[in-house]
Design goal:
With about 425 residues, the protein is an all-alpha fold. It has two domains: about 20-225, no CATH class; about 245-424, no CATH class. The protein has helices at about 1-35, 40-70, 70-85, 85-120, 120-125, 125-130, 135-140, 145-150, 155-175, 185-205, 215-225, 225-240, 240-250, 255-290, 295-320, 320-330, 335-345, 350-365, 365-424. Helix 2 crosses helix 4, helix 9 runs antiparallel to helix 10 and helix 14 runs antiparallel to helix 15.
């Protein structure tokens, strides 16, 4: 009887993990694949230069998305996962984290306003930056961390997908000439904002959780809890989205930014598949760590091997079939983007592994190592990538990105093994 009970529990865990993965796949598919589907249309309609302007604006606004996220997608997920049977505690976490995110959003809006008025380069396309900031509002309203903590991603995956599809269809309808490029961020933002508002009704109806004002002490507690992850995430953006900003500043060529962005989007979509596996198992692994560290390390190694195997296949495919993929994705042969894609393909192996190791440090309550690794990687990136970009233009940047991701994983493995050796 005990064996049957254990088998039922194991099967239940596997089914839940698979359901979470499928839900995340649908959710991220809407976030990445749908924009990829409209790439050919956008490039032909608004042109590579305007696409570069949009990409530069997105890279800039990403800083504010990182500020408002503040690492809560990991820390709040962990807290919700641990206390999900305690409705009072969940209400506290939900409300305090939302309060913190709204405060950070207002701070971000102030910073953006100042930036627009002190820089002619930003002021020239101020409408694009303001409309793109709508993505920040949508992210704040959309509590992915809440549903991840409950391992109930299906509640929002399909809602998000429907709204993303509507946004995509709207782009085909309303963006018909080059001057319409500013409409793209409006439509993208509206989808996330509506999804965020709708999710509040779902949380109230199906989970019985409502927003309640919390004491400043509780809000500060969650700020402190996410501090190290916030620093590490800021560091991460310094060697991801900052690279597009660096390219734009050094080259002063929106077309070159557009070429790089096309290849990067393909890479990020592919790498996101590996990250989905990590995000789906994160709440489950949090509980395993509490019950058995030995079992945790065993399953961690299994997931590590799985990720390396899957991402290696993607790397080989994107590198050797880069011309075909670019023709398929962009609707035309773009030599610069194709060459960049072939180089960046080697970074795909390392990108999901970084997320796997970072979440492992969070699970083990070793957030300080996340901060150390990402800050050192950020410094390495800021020293290497601008130099390579200045000397070899966009190709130097692509090689720099690969080297930075390799360095990032080397540091993660080093600190992970140090922790593991102390545990056993």
């Amino acid at each position: 009887m005990k064996i049957e009970a254990l088998n039922k529990i194991a099967n239940s865990d596997v089914k839940r993990l698979f359901a979470n993965f499928i839900s995340l796949l649908v959710l991220q598919g809407a976030n990445y694949i749908l924009p990829l589907l409209i790439l050919p249309y956008l490039i032909r309609t608004i042109g590579v230069e305007n696409f570069g302007i949009l990409s530069f604006a997105e890279a800039t606004i990403t800083y504010f998305m990182i500020i408002t996220d503040y690492g809560f997608n990991s820390t709040a997920t962990r807290w919700i996962s641990v206390h999900r049977d305690n409705k009072q505690k969940v209400t506290e976490i939900f409300s305090a984290v939302l309060t913190a995110k709204f405060l950070l959003m207002f701070l971000s809006a102030i910073i953006l306003t100042i930036l627009l008025f002190i820089s002619d380069r930003f002021y020239e396309h101020k409408e694009v930056y303001i409309f793109t900031f709508g993505m920040v509002i949508g992210q704040v309203l959309f509590p992915t961390w809440f549903f991840q903590g409950y391992e109930k991603m299906k509640y929002i995956a399909y809602l998000n997908t429907i709204l993303k599809i509507l946004s995509t269809v709207s782009i085909f309808i309303f963006v018909t000439e080059q001057s319409d490029f500013y409409i793209v961020p409006i439509l993208n933002a509206l989808g996330t904002i509506i999804a965020g508002i709708w999710s509040f009704f779902i949380i109230k109806k199906d989970f019985g959780i409502s927003f309640c004002f919390q004491s400043i002490e509780k809000v500060i507690f969650y700020f402190k809890d996410g501090w190290h992850l916030f620093l590490s995430t800021i560091a991460v953006v310094m060697y991801t989205s900052t690279n597009i900003v660096i390219l734009g500043v050094i080259s002063s060529d929106h077309s070159l930014v557009g070429h790089y962005s096309i290849a990067e989007k393909i890479i990020m979509i592919t790498a996101a598949f590996g990250s989905l596996i990590d995000r789906a198992i994160f709440p489950h692994f949090s509980k395993i760590w509490i019950n058995s560290q030995h079992e945790y390390y065993q399953k961690f190694n299994n997931i590590l091997i799985l990720l390396i195997s899957i991402m290696s296949i993607f790397t080989i495919f994107l590198h050797f079939f880069n011309d075909f993929i670019m023709l398929l994705i962009a609707g035309e042969k773009i030599e610069i983007s194709s060459d960049i894609l072939a180089i960046l393909a080697f970074a795909i192996i390392f990108m999901p592994l970084g997320s796997l190791y970072s979440n492992s440090f969070v699970i083990q309550e070793k957030n300080i190592y996340v901060t150390k690794v990402t800050i050192m990687t950020m410094i390495f990136n800021l020293l290497l990538v601008p130099l390579l970009t200045w000397k070899y233009s966009v190709y130097g940047m692509a090689y720099g990105v690969v080297l930075v991701n390799m360095f990032h994983i080397f540091l993660n493995v080093f600190y992970f093994n140090r922790i593991k050796s102390k545990d056993f």
